[in-house]
Amino acid sequence: MGLTGDLLARWAARRPHPLVVAAPGATVARLAVEAHADRGGWPLAPSPADADLLVVVGEPGSELAAAVERVWAQFPGPRARARVTDPAGAASALHAAVARLTGTGGEPADPGPEAGGGQHDGGSGSSGHGDHDGMSMPGGLMMAERAEDRDGLKLDVLHLALGPVLADWPAGLVVELAVQGDVVQSADARVLPPADPAAVRPYPDVDHPELRRRRQAVAHLDALGRLWAVVGWPAGAVAARRLRDALVDHVPLATAYAGFRALDRRARRSRALRRATDGLGVLPEVTAGRAGLADPAAVCGDATDRWRRRLAETYRLLAGGEPAAPEPDAAAVLAVAARLTVGLDLAAARVVLASFDPDPDAVVAAGVRS
Q: What is the pTM of this model?
């Protein structure tokens, strides 16, 4: 491997940086992977360029699998990958991948594309332009067109896709955007299905009241962790995820309740957090109703209203409240969230999408039923 490679491998052994890519329907396994990474002190990578370990969770369908391969081609070396389909096998799969990464498992680490490896799907490389399926690489730009600006000037209209492989991003979600200047002009969202869509069940889909209450609280904390990571509050995101993981590990609800109260106070008192979300993605209740949402109040208001509502619902569940009624129609939520990105810059658009946190599992399950 050489001196430089040996040093990189020893550094990676201490703190690998996994990029986690989940297929819809693999929520339980993804939670197990993220919890194990946190316990090991492994920071989740914000992009392929910062990652050395690719963790694919669940069974991606063909489109999502192709996107994963294109992202894998962007990984620098040394690199390794893992597949996790069963939460019980998450720890062993991750440690086996790290052993490959460091060469301690009897196999050398993949040297990465710069050493001639890792080109997939015709060797499109890491540029992300000109993919045969018309989708850009995550965050990559497609061909520019020209369109009139409000002032009558011709400006480039860039077509790009957010997802399906991004940190702090719902499983399999792709939002295809037309952007003029730095402003979103149109947005179309869809979910790439897993290999077996008929097997997908929304995460809180259990009958036992105690387990359903716990899982609903987990889902809210998971969504809060994603949103707060996107807006740049990593301490809050880590705290939400650790509380989420404790609930998955069956910590008593009373213990979780005590820990949550401190997090709730920190979030509600944070002026910086409110500044990052105030006024973004405003959804009037009447508009939510017209969009076909059975419970408009669950998602109306702005991004701040939505995360505060999640805090209140988590508080209620951990205090022993009854499990909530079914969530609003996931496909309708996704469509509304995408529409509300129009007129925003990309950073604000991501915040709006994260504030709704559309549920890909529910979107896929509803599509199968229909």
A: 0.84
